[in-house]
Design brief:
By secondary structure, the protein is of the alpha/beta class. It has one domain: Rossmann fold (3-Layer(aba) Sandwich). It is built from 5 helices and 5 strands. The chain has a 5-stranded parallel beta sheet, sandwiched between helices. The radius of gyration is 13 Å and the shape is globular.
Length: 118
């Protein structure tokens, strides 16, 4: 099972997601913005990226553009996890594999993760 990369600037959400995913047996990496996430993606080659859209320094849109530009997308699934009121429209334009709106139901979230994790 490939690792999961959480890209979100909310420390509370990072901690909750990491604990939940590790309990389910996943290896988890965390980046608080798109710039740090690109470095992790290059080094760790996650099977799934859980991507927030609204972050400082490099947001989710810029991260996806750079991921594609660098040829890092490959087999990686991307699940947008966002509270942005335009998340659905943004996600549709980003070539992502799914969308979960914050706040979310944990069992629903985990079902999406299990389906997309590669």
């Amino acid at each position: 099972m490939k690792p999961i990369l959480i890209v979100d600037d909310d420390p509370g959400l990072q901690e909750m997601l990491q604990a939940t995913l590790e309990y389910e047996g996943y290896t988890v990496f965390i980046a608080e913005d798109g710039q740090k996430a690109l470095a992790v993606a290059e080094q760790e080659h996650p099977g799934l990226v859980l991507l927030d859209l609204m972050m400082p320094r490099m947001d989710g849109r810029a991260f996806m553009a750079e991921l594609e530009r660098r040829g890092l997308r490959g087999e990686m699934a991307v699940l947008v996890v966002s509270a942005d009121r335009h998340a659905k429209e943004i996600a549709e334009g980003l070539n992502v594999d799914g969308l979960i709106l914050k706040p979310f139901d944990v069992p629903e979230f985990m079902a999406a993760v299990h389906q997309m994790a590669r």
